[in-house]
Description:
This protein is α/β, with parallel strands linked by helices. The chain has 5 domains: 3-121; 151-303, no CATH class; 308-438, no CATH class; 451-639 and 702-723, Alkaline Phosphatase, subunit A; 736-843, Sandwich (Immunoglobulin-like). It is 42% helix and 18% strand. Strands 21, 22, 23, 24, 25, 26, 27, 28 and 29 form a 9-stranded mixed beta sheet that branches.
Amino acid sequence: MKIAEFIAQEVLRPRLAARGCLVVYDPEQRLRDLCLGMAGDRVGVVDAGAGSLAGRQAMQQALRALGRPQPALDGLLVYVPAAAPLTDEARQANPYAAAAACGAVFPDGAGDEFEQLCLRARPDHQTDIRRLFAQMPAGPSFAVIDAVGGGFNWPQLKATLQVESGREILLALLAPNAGQQAALKASEGWATEARDFLKATLGLLLKTRGKTWSAIADETWRFLLFSEFVFDLLAGTHQAVPDALQPVPRAPAEARSIVEDSCERLRTDPRTQPTYVERAVTVEAELNLAALCAQIDDLGQRETFPFEERAVLRRTLLAVTGGQLDTARQWVARHKTSVWRGQEHSQAQWQLMGAALALVQACDDLERSLPEHSRTLAALLDHYATALRDADRLQREFEQAASEQVDAQGLMNDVAHHARSRYRQLAERVQTLLMRHMETAAWPPPGRLMNTQVFDRFAAAPLAEPGRRVAYVMVDALRYELGVTLERLLADDGPVALHAALAQLPTVTPVGMASLLPAAAADLTIAVQSDGLVPLLAGLPVGGVAHRMEAFRRVYGDRFSEMRLDDFARGQPAVKPSVDLLVLRSTEIDALLESSPGSALTLVPSTLKMIRVALHKLRAYGFTDAVVVTDHGFFLNNLAETGDVCAKPTGNWPVIAHDRMALGAGPGDNANLVLPADRLGIRAVGFTQVGLPRSLAPYRAGHLYFHGGLSLQEAVVPVLVLKLLRAEAHTAAQVNVQLAYKNGAKRITVRVPVIDIALVSVGLFDQGQPVEVLLEAHDKSGNVVGEARPGGDVNPATRTLTLQPGESKKIPLRMSDEYQGKVTIKALNPTTLQKLASIDLETDYTV
């Protein structure tokens, strides 16, 4: 189609038909013959260049004709050989503005510029057209545009590849599907046409003498990728191309648009993305780009090659540690759409970067607001329960991300140290304020909920009512921020209320669990005996699990039963109908953190998952209420250094509780706050005073994870109270989830494979509702041997992800180092563990 025909048929006639009237302003008088030639039986054309008075009269007559009940014309085109009026004053003076107001105007926006019209008319020859406009500022004639390409329309390429447009030809030559690749191998003659096509579209003069697809594709990929890299490098900061790379062929400036568009399509299309990644890695190595560009600070905005992503990572590191948080946020956000985000080490490092950035930013914000929320102990406690707790959550998520990555080169050391230092700085400042208040205040402050009151208030009261059955879930070391996270997870399943309670001091497991027993507010005492610290309930020891369970049994008899949380959630336990109080016990968080604080945070989501599963299952057992409680929180100090220890106070201190609290008698000093035991809410037997480190340091060096003392992290704990309503969750029939791995590959060759997951549809009555999914890898016995790596789309606290209908995501799985063999990747309902979808794979790490 010639350019005049394209403008008439694709631009002017559709507007004329839609609005009935079209005013064409043409100061270059390029369109005069075209417009006058559109006159016909039902289309009137007024030539304003023939004389202003005659033109106005003709326009008025034609407008009146259009307004009749049965008009003689279907449309009116007014040709004005002048520029369109741009201001209201100019339009008032323009005799043809009335017609423009009644209908449409040409040109209308940048898309109607002559160059853009030519590019749309001849999309296969964009490079040549841009070159013509660069050489001819006034614009080429219609005849010149019609001559571009010599009339070629690539018939063999279109027939061989089964495509129509030039853009489709280029993409098919670079990344053909199986059918196209077979056709290229089977047919002849297309190679010569491909040479002409690549010259016209990209300005590429093929040097290869080969006529096979592989030879042409290799050179084209190198040309295309290097061209995009250079365009991006030269833009903005005007960096120079290294001398060693100057001879490498690249596209002319006129081809920039098609180069960038083609690369972006190849990067983002899931069908071609693996090919793009493979080609970019190969070209980067062939051209030695990483070494030759090592001294360039700013490589641009596009990450054509993987070494550019590494450069951006290093710049982001410097921005975080240098306090340029806004800049760092922009780069972290940009990487979320990077083609390199699926690379194993890259994704882990960027997740750590994002977690560090969020932690540092939160600490900065919270420290600024601290003075106005810390004037009293009550105000400080409220601030912790509503805001400061977020720093703990972000610290946990950061440490989870840190434990997930392998950083043999130590690239992330600086940002990790900076984030930990910033958190420790805020935590120490809060601790200083707390200790300052404790010099004059009492623990607990008046009106605060104590752990010793929790059972009587939230469990005993409903148990006194007929038909009420209560599950009492006792979770060791469920820090307050974890309770907040759990509340959000459980909110969709029924009414849930979160209360901030104060732990019984000292914040160690025997005392904390004893404080959660019936009548603890009245009967709990803390004794120092010859064998150490012993909690007593009505004079009976309750420091061990058996003793504590016996305390429940003494009150509730056959109405009471107990078991491990994990056993209840994973199995099919028998619970007698006579049982109204079921105690479920979990010690995993505390035990794992005690034994391996550096990596155990990655296992915390397993406990939260079991809580959710258990609460869902309790409904089926007929329980009406649930209360989730904990004995104490914890402080995690992954920045512990030599000398990070508090000297014990002088005096007689027969018991040092978990290296964080001294029980006995003696004077205080600059490092220790010594208070009467009753000032701290302790009914003491065998001691009168309590010594506390004023800082967040233990009495013994080397502790990364500790509790036992008085800090907000150790002593403010969650209590979750739930009504167990019977609510139907999504079923496998209602939710259509699809899983895939590497376009159908069956072997996992890396420890962190990336799984494609998509929510195709949900039930008829749940349209538009998001669905939460748990993604795991199981061995043939059903054991978990791989879990979704936290961060990004995966909730660090639960390892679940949320999908909207029609949405797809790429989720990395962290496979167990100890397991190799056949695995089943499963998408599960996180509250029922019902399977929604699965694929069978096999590990092959030797590849």
